[in-house]
Fold:
Amino acid sequence: MKDQLVKFWKDEEGATAIEYALIAGLIAVVIIGALTVLGNSVDSIFRNISAELDNAKPSTTGG
Structure:
């Protein structure tokens, strides 16, 4: 029993998985933060592009 407990205490495989999970979580937080900060300006750029494309369409009223 004591040997199993010592072996369990020294096992570090789970620690590596937790470290990778923490790194992945931190990366996700950074990405969400960046998208929140840049979201409005990117949305504005795409709205301007969409408006320009709508203005460039040929008229379908047949004049």
About this structure: Residues 13-56 form the longest helix (44 residues). The chain has a mean pLDDT of 85. The two ends are 92 Å apart (CA to CA). Helices lie at 2-10, 13-56.
